[in-house]
Amino acid sequence: YTFEKVNSEISRREDWALRRQKELPNNRRLFVLTCMDERVPIEKALGVQVGDAHIYRNAGGVVTDDVIRSAALSCNFFGSHEIIVVTHTECGMMSHFFHTDPDMILKYLEFHLGRKIDPATVPLDPSLPELELKGDLYNSFVKWIRMFDDTDKACLAQVELLRNHPLIRKDVVIHGYVYEVESGTLRFPYHRVADKVDTAEEMFAKGVWSNR
Amino acid sequence: YTFEKVNSEISRREDWALRRQKELPNNRRLFVLTCMDERVPIEKALGVQVGDAHIYRNAGGVVTDDVIRSAALSCNFFGSHEIIVVTHTECGMMSHFFHTDPDMILKYLEFHLGRKIDPATVPLDPSLPELELKGDLYNSFVKWIRMFDDTDKACLAQVELLRNHPLIRKDVVIHGYVYEVESGTLRFPYHRVADKVDTAEEMFAKGVWSNR
Amino acid sequence: YTFEKVNSEISRREDWALRRQKELPNNRRLFVLTCMDERVPIEKALGVQVGDAHIYRNAGGVVTDDVIRSAALSCNFFGSHEIIVVTHTECGMMSHFFHTDPDMILKYLEFHLGRKIDPATVPLDPSLPELELKGDLYNSFVKWIRMFDDTDKACLAQVELLRNHPLIRKDVVIHGYVYEVESGTLRFPYHRVADKVDTAEEMFAKGVWSNR
Amino acid sequence: YTFEKVNSEISRREDWALRRQKELPNNRRLFVLTCMDERVPIEKALGVQVGDAHIYRNAGGVVTDDVIRSAALSCNFFGSHEIIVVTHTECGMMSHFFHTDPDMILKYLEFHLGRKIDPATVPLDPSLPELELKGDLYNSFVKWIRMFDDTDKACLAQVELLRNHPLIRKDVVIHGYVYEVESGTLRFPYHRVADKVDTAEEMFAKGVWSNR
Amino acid sequence: YTFEKVNSEISRREDWALRRQKELPNNRRLFVLTCMDERVPIEKALGVQVGDAHIYRNAGGVVTDDVIRSAALSCNFFGSHEIIVVTHTECGMMSHFFHTDPDMILKYLEFHLGRKIDPATVPLDPSLPELELKGDLYNSFVKWIRMFDDTDKACLAQVELLRNHPLIRKDVVIHGYVYEVESGTLRFPYHRVADKVDTAEEMFAKGVWSNR
Amino acid sequence: YTFEKVNSEISRREDWALRRQKELPNNRRLFVLTCMDERVPIEKALGVQVGDAHIYRNAGGVVTDDVIRSAALSCNFFGSHEIIVVTHTECGMMSHFFHTDPDMILKYLEFHLGRKIDPATVPLDPSLPELELKGDLYNSFVKWIRMFDDTDKACLAQVELLRNHPLIRKDVVIHGYVYEVESGTLRFPYHRVADKVDTAEEMFAKGVWSNR
Amino acid sequence: YTFEKVNSEISRREDWALRRQKELPNNRRLFVLTCMDERVPIEKALGVQVGDAHIYRNAGGVVTDDVIRSAALSCNFFGSHEIIVVTHTECGMMSHFFHTDPDMILKYLEFHLGRKIDPATVPLDPSLPELELKGDLYNSFVKWIRMFDDTDKACLAQVELLRNHPLIRKDVVIHGYVYEVESGTLRFPYHRVADKVDTAEEMFAKGVWSNR
Amino acid sequence: YTFEKVNSEISRREDWALRRQKELPNNRRLFVLTCMDERVPIEKALGVQVGDAHIYRNAGGVVTDDVIRSAALSCNFFGSHEIIVVTHTECGMMSHFFHTDPDMILKYLEFHLGRKIDPATVPLDPSLPELELKGDLYNSFVKWIRMFDDTDKACLAQVELLRNHPLIRKDVVIHGYVYEVESGTLRFPYHRVADKVDTAEEMFAKGVWSNR
Question: Which of these, G68, G69, G64, G88, lies nearest to G151 by C-alpha position?
């Protein structure tokens, strides 16, 4: 009978629309942390489809309190059992400029905003005034911006932060990768293929022949 | 000459790979805030492509300090001049259960984690210990989870929080939409087409004929 | 031999062209009743192809004497053993306006026609003058227009009318659905997914969690 | 700005979903009357798409009171200004058998139903008991089944019935075609190409050369 | 090894190019006789591809001495064991005009040629002067044009001529079909589906119901 | 109005089906003579479509009385004003064997037929007994088989035969080509590219450099 | 887990990028020698893909010291065990002109260069001055240009040169083909299909029938 | 007329097949020098098609006497006016191993060949015995293998060798690129994008911000 096929299709659609109420996890039980950068096609890079994963994206793809909150919900309430962290090359969060000269950051922000910033009065989170920076407010504010030095190091560091956090269960599997915007592919951190291929020296030092 | 075409292609690729160093904005100068939910194909819903927008996603698509940080960077350093907020229906952040009975939240987390949680010792952000909740720690922690009641109300609220934040310039254009997972389309908040079409009463009350 | 393949193809085509003479039923032995509305792609919604079903369409998708006649022929002479009724949202037959103020209907018709209508002289069916309305002619004429209030209620009512009619065999299987023009999908009557997903209240009241 | 494109798309979808409330006609302002037969792909035959036309289908594609009701609503309330009638070859409504021997119809129906039928007690329209056959009930009931002799004649007859009905405005344009299930194409009534091509006689009698 | 694949491909191509020298038959061992008419896509109608069949086409698709020659070569030297004859509707060879008034044919030819024709001096076959018409030269010449009356009759007649010819072996299988240019399909001779579907009379006379 | 589009489509189809009665020529006003060989995709080789040309095919693609008849009808009655002759390489009509030893042909035919052939009693054309061979019957019969020596020579010869025949008007444009089954392309007769490319000698003798 | 699929994809890409360091051979273990001519799509002709073969191309596709060097590396260091040589028709290296009149070559080069050439001072290989011609310098220089007479002979000759060279192992399988630019296909040397198909003589002399 | 289109197509094909005899250059008047490596899809990398360029490939993509010969013919006789050199990363010609320890090369070759090699008796070019190495034969033989150290340096060096050679006209335009097998794209020599994107240090040192 045709009605059986129609009923089945209606049910399939309802299961999709009521996933959270029916406590259905995403298809791959996967939480992804990556950068908001417009050059990171994260679904394509990981080979995931709509419906497959919770995808968290912020500036840098770094662990923040919002990441902890979102990952804890995904893994505890919504059934995820795997986390993948993806940082990327040429990230806007890498800047020697601000790093060596940290007070430039406020000046630069002030330049773009067109007015003075006082870290003491800026609401970090306007809907949660209970959230505050303590200690040396100026330095804490600069830290809060979360510039970093090295995308491979940053990737490994985020994995560690998540592995050790008390709100993430120990049986959640966590891995990190670096997305290369220049080649459009993922790599393991610090395993840059481009470093091993340009000169005889590199091929000798890092390749397979060197082991003979 | 063929080399001219080759040079041009190499330059085009380098511009893509060095966008941040060359201070090139994303194609649409757009920052998007939405939920990490696996059923929200945000690029398709907005009609944007890889390269077009910075896409921030967290649990709920709600404003947090991480959103403020990321949006401030996108709009001040990276050239964005538009923000779009998209919440969605059947979001996992809507729960009457926790709302009416807030202390259930810790119990439920503890149930899934398999151990006790002490809000006083949980590091909100493991890489930024300077970030703390103040006041009634238990209630602040529950607020920090950021459950909400109504996705349309939540959408409008996030837009307001961004419009009024001192780190977002006033000339940034900000709009909010609700993505319906049940129909796979966007709506204006509180303009639910499905409410206007099932009965004569609804058609009379909300439609065009009622104005005659 | 090639002629065998040619003969087989000619026979297949003849079976198609002489289906009624050879007393072959439609492929799914299905009779469908739905509205004539231009937004209802009934074949796609039910997943049926050319050749699969008898498709009856009128204003509203409601049972009339013509429906009884057509369904009786389909199920008794032409071999159908299943009926599916599909009404739809935002149907032009739903109008509070005419409902509360029934004499407006003739006035409105007269306005569009540009002349007076006298129910006593209008031939209901110009090829069958034996067909007449009896009783209070004015009210019967308004009833004959068949406005309705609620598309889900209308759907269920048509199913009942067909289930109980003496010209439809009891072993014909009958189901009803509502097609949502706003989402482009079918639903079970009164099972509107869009009602369960916008607020925590709705999710609590109707979803799965409410049962715990 | 991206929000402009998004708004425009939301509006376009709302116009579709609220067509009747906004009193928008179908795209071609067209009402089609055709048979419910599974071999008539009426949209393809006329070259119309979803959204283009109100499509009325019943057993035979013949004018009934339900057709008058639906066409009157389409042309007066919903803006249609054209009617196309399509009957088809090898229609199940053509039967010499019942025609020459009319009382066989009840016997045949009784045979399939497995019980006696009494025209006096069968509700023609179960939701509108005011609708009745008058005069010689037995013959009227047979007429109500609406068998016919000749599909080309039937097509022309339905066009005339609609042209002359007082509820259809005189400025509505009405045409009729016959759909050939054996060739999958439309023809003008009585202009059967297949009649002009098999013998020299036919070519002489009907073609162009005969005029020299 | 790659050379094995290359050798195999070269051999396959040589087999194609040297089919006659290698005495390979066509793929289906089929000889087809049909008309040269531009509306007869003979390969598509029979479902044959390049390489499948010898295809003889002339004015009318009728048996001539050239057909006998070609079919005898195909079936005796080139391995064919099946013949299919296809005439078609609306063939230019059907003309009541010339048929009833045979001397018009020369006049008409002379009109188009712009000069007189003398059957006695026209070389029937300019490369084979030994080929001659005998008897009443004028009437023989008209017969040689090979007009015919009825495409179904002509089809059956050609099949018989081939079946009985001494140069065609008796184990060659021969069938005939009529291609309908009006419907784009083949039929068995005199089995015109279009004759059985327009009226109740036709359906009664020729269909299945008539046998009950 | 939709009916205008429908009418136009019906007319277009009728023009196709009644081309001969309406005295419409084929699209390119072209008559093609080619071989029945299964490896000659004549439409593709000439770039013509269904509807474009009258296509005559026999064993060899050589002029016979049937060709004269068909070409005279195409050019005089059916409006063609161009003839293209295409012979092909590796044609089954080329055989040194029969040519040098002509009485082998009857023996070979007899071998395949399994019985004796008497040229005096074989009906050349079973439907036209008036057609006879005269003179030395045995040699005429062998000539009637129409073996040839050289496909390029044969091509040019057929063009001449057609150019000089009194039933073909002088303003008909006639060209000849050879189809190469080994390369799948056409050539001008005797302009074989493959002859000019294998050795320095050939390149010198036939190419462009030889003229310097 | 998703990370497993990601790891596997990264490894696959690394294997590709580090093939030489990991001492992986090409996919087919194949070395190809062919001409640099723009009309030779060597990959398509051999049915090989990117990754399948080492492809050496020079003027003529002839063996030089560079070919010996490259083939020796491919077969000894990089794992190839098959060599395919492909010369082609209409090669620019075939010229009767220079061949019969060898001193024209320097004059012609001088004409294009616009200055005198002294074979004694031209560095044959600017990066390897140790490489020299000895003996009659003028004639050696002309030989070094490597014009040839016949592409089939040249093909076979190159195969022999490679088969007998001491730097190529004896278990390397070597074949030669000629690519026909006029037909776009490969042939075995001296097996030109085009030579066997144009006349009865050719078919008799070279085909299959000649053997009976 | 159709014959005009056919003639034009035959001429177009003949121009292709007789390019060298008609002294037509390749489409882009381009000579390419690149490596024989199976991972270098040179046509795709440069955006050239069949017919566009002379493509020289050897082990390494380095200048040899064969390159000089081929380039001189392409640019002087065959009309090329542009040269592009493409070396690639992870080339098998880069080997620290052989470089630092040159006598290993003969040992390694001997190991694979399974026998001793005597540079004094190995014919460098078996068809041109006049070609010899002079001076220190052992070292010259090692140089002749042409290992190199650095693919970017090698690329620039080959461009210089070609620019300065007396057999290449000065108006030939010459450029060099490095193909990255790890990213599948071309780069300018020493302009490796992958070097500028992994750390803040790199972004500062090489990017655009460093110039402010």
Answer: G88
